[in-house]
Amino acid sequence: MRKKLLITSLSMVLVMSGCSGTGGSGGNEQGTDSATEAATEAVTEEVTEVTTEAETETEEATEASAEKRTEALVEPSTEILNQETTEDVEETFEEYMLSGIENLNDQLVLIAENSDKWKITYEAPEEEEVIEGPEWYYAITDFDMNGRIEIVTSEIDGSGLNSTSKFYEVNKDFTALEEVKWVFPEGDSEPNITVNMADVYMNKDKGVYYYLFDDARNVSGEDIRETLYSICLKDGEVKSEVIGSSHMRSSNEGENVQSEYMDKNGKTITLDEYEELGNKEYPNFTKGTLTLGWNNVDGFDTEFPEDADSIRDILEYSSTGFAVSFE
Question: Which DSSP category does 319 fall into?
Answer without folding.
Answer: H
